[in-house]
Design brief:
Mean pLDDT: 84
Structural class: alpha/beta
Number of helices: 24
Number of strands: 23
Strand content: 5-15%
Distance between the termini: 45 Å
Largest sheet: 13 strands, parallel
């Protein structure tokens, strides 16, 4: 049989990027370890095939990171069973004491060149094996980690310092030291530094530039070639570097801190036009021989991208008459009105340029348009008898909407986001303006995210015209006395419905519609039981994603799953409670296999014993396998998984996550990280 396997050298090149640990990551001394991850272990590469196992084993063992007693014990067992594995270990990072197993690990790893040790050792840890094993190695690079502001001082730390000082006297190859100390004082510094200064240290790494003076003075007797500064140096320290010792400056290596903050993704803009050398022919006209239609098409295409890429949009229009003519539609394509004083001029432009309104696709109104204060009114000039005419901002916005017939998106307020809905601070349009919008752009409008003024006798007829609307974010307390006036075929394209505030009659209006495309509903308002029951009876079977408050599910209970049998995602949010919902609400009478994910968006912090007890009761009695057979994930937007063995052992959430895993459900934290069971000591 023909052998189609790759050579070991080529497999090694392929696997190296996946298994390699960068030097700056290995030596990272941050309080939160860069290895505090919950992803798949890189050892999974070894299980692909025998050739990968053979090639990847040395790569995997070349850098070893130990973060728990169970890992140390497992590694000790592996090295005892196969001593050859220990010879592959070149870099060893030990983020704790980890008990007697560390003596075996170090004894079986004679080729360690880079050693990372932490002095953040708690009294409950055990450093006996670590202290006994340090004498079996002879590293060239020592990296220490320590609390910078409040170093720990207990029996285990003292024992580790004593064991490390004894080992340091034997290490004759040490040339690099990563120093965690802020000064030459303190128990750790006074124990370690006198021994280190007798070594041939040529590279010293310090936390910040503030430690450079004393560190240089202490290690001056060593054959220092480089002092590296971890933290970037800011402008203040850069200015004071001139006062440093010339000898220190000659070997100091640092990175200057950048003061220019990068722009958020999606907001990159060209602040200045590029400098272009003048043409050798001053009378040259681009595309002079091409027909005007061809020139217009090419320049229009170019200008459409240029308008989006630069903040100096107006400058493009002023280059030439042809640029003004071609770029003007793109200038108004995405219109944002941030000042009330601009409403009347924009309205006048759209009145004068009758075709311009058809080019506006998105309109965002982020200014006061509902004030009756005369100071906010627009002055249009004087009448024949000398009296000044006033145009209210609300009238101007109606005039603008009446002259735009191809809007795709309308938004009132730019501060409104899904995570921070500032409902009562955004500008609101009148009900007449909403009806005008529906009448003029109803066939093209796909998104409406607006706040509408309340009205005691509103008509739902405007919804009949919104045939293309896909997303509706409704924020209006208007009352609809005649709910039957709306057509059953209204909002036939609506897919996402979000209600932040509304009168109960609005739900009744929606119940009169068929809404065949509706799939996602977010209800932030508390409605009467009668109105919400009617809404869910009509549209519940279509919903695949639903967001409601804990209070609403408390009122509906498990009946919610009977009204919405096809839900795949359920989102619960209540900002006023840290207590969990009743577990009985998640035990419907019938099996609901469609529900895959439950998201808890509110803040569920554990500050008191009774709150923790309530959550413990919830997870103990919540049995998804009985009814919610398809549930696979529960996400909590207010909790983050612990990053150290000590924190994991103390965390109630970890205990509950382990309980849910036995039910086939994974808990997910605010970063979207799934909990994975850790290796345990038997």
């Amino acid at each position: 049989m023909r052998d189609n396997s790759l050579p070991d050298e080529l497999i090694s090149e392929i696997l190296s990027p996946a298994l390699k640990v960068a030097d700056h990551v290995f030596s990272n001394t941050s309080h939160v370890s860069p290895f505090a991850a919950y992803g798949e272990s890189t050892s999974a590469y070894l299980l692909v095939c025998k050739s990968w196992l053979r090639v990847a084993t040395p790569l995997l063992y070349s850098v070893v990171v130990l973060r728990s007693k169970a890992q140390a014990k497992a590694l000790a067992a592996a090295l005892s069973g196969n001593p050859e594995l220990g010879r592959f270990i070149k870099k060893l990072r030990v983020e704790g004491g980890f008990g007697p197993a560390m003596q075996t690990v170090l004894r079986c790893s004679p080729n360690v060149t880079d050693l990372f040790l932490t002095l953040e050792i708690y009294s409950s840890d055990n450093v006996g094996g670590l202290c006994k094993g340090l004498g079996f190695i002879n590293p060239s690079n020592l990296i220490l980690q320590n609390f910078r502001h409040k170093p720990l001082n207990n029996k285990m730390v003292s024992q580790l310092l004593k064991g490390l000082s004894q080992a340091l006297r034997k290490w004759d190859q040490l040339v690099v030291f990563d120093c965690p100390f802020q000064g030459s004082r303190g128990a750790a510094a006074t124990t370690i530094l006198p021994i280190l200064v007798t070594k041939e240290i040529h590279t010293l790494v310090i936390p910040s530039i503030r430690e450079s003076t004393w560190a240089y003075a202490v290690f001056k007797a060593c054959p220092l070639k480089t002092i590296q500064v971890r933290e970037p140096i800011n402008e203040f320290h850069l200015e004071n570097l001139g006062s440093k010792d010339p000898g220190l400056m000659a070997i100091l290596e640092f990175t200057a801190e950048t003061t220019r903050k990068p722009k958020a993704p999606g907001f990159e803009q060209i602040s200045e036009f590029p400098v272009i050398a003048p043409s050798l022919n001053p009378s040259f006209i681009p595309l002079a021989d091409a027909p005007r239609e061809v020139r217009d098409q090419l320049w229009a295409r170019i200008l459409s991208f240029a308008i989006l890429a630069t903040s100096r949009k107006l400058a493009l229009l002023l280059i030439s008459k042809s640029f003004y003519r071609l770029a003007l539609p793109f200038y108004y394509e995405h219109l944002i009105i941030r000042r009330t004083q601009l409403l009347l001029p924009i309205s006048s432009i759209l009145t004068r340029e009758t075709t311009l309104g058809s080019h506006i696709r998105t309109l965002t109104v982020d200014c006061d348009i509902d004030s009756d204060d005369p100071s906010d009114d627009e002055d249009t000039g004087d009448t024949a008898d000398g009296e000044s005419l006033k145009v209210k901002p609300s009238d101007s916005i109606i005039a603008i909407l009446s002259r735009t017939n191809k809007l795709v998106k309308f938004r009132s307020g730019s501060r409104l986001t899904e995570t921070s809905p500032i409902i009562y601070m955004d500008p609101q349009i009148s009900l007449d303006a909403f009806e005008t919008l529906a009448e003029c752009s109803g066939s093209t409008l796909r998104e409406f995210l607006g706040r509408v003024q309340a009205h005691d006798h509103a008509s739902p007829i405007a919804f009949n015209s919104l045939k293309a609307l896909q997303t509706l974010w409704w924020r209006c307390d208007a009352r609809f006395p005649d709910v039957t006036a709306v057509s059953p075929n209204a909002l036939q394209s609506l897919e996402v419905l979000r209600i932040s505030c509304a009168h109960p009659s609005f739900l009744s209006v929606l119940s009169e519609m068929k809404l065949p495309s509706l799939r996602n509903v977010i209800l932030s308002e508390r409605f009467t039981n009668q109105s919400q029951d009617a809404f869910f009876r009509t549209h519940g079977p279509k919903l695949t994603e639903l967001s409601i408050s804990d209070t609403m599910i408390g009122n509906m209970g498990a009946r919610l799953f009977e009204l919405c049998p096809n839900l795949s995602v359920l989102i619960l949010s209540d900002e006023h409670s840290s207590y969990p919902p009743n577990y009985k609400h998640f035990h419907p009478l019938r099996e609901v296999p469609s529900l895959v994910k439950i998201v808890f968006k509110s803040y569920y912090g554990i500050h008191h014993k009774d709150i923790e007890s309530s959550w413990n009761n919830f997870f103990t009695n919540f049995k998804p396998r009985q009814c919610l057979t398809g549930l696979r994930e529960m996400r909590f937007r207010s909790y983050k998984w612990p990053t150290s063995e000590r924190e994991i052992a103390k965390s109630s959430w970890v205990r509950w996550a382990e309980t849910m895993l036995t039910q086939g459900v994974t808990l997910v934290d605010l970063n979207g990280t799934k909990w994975r069971s850790r290796l345990k000591v038997k």
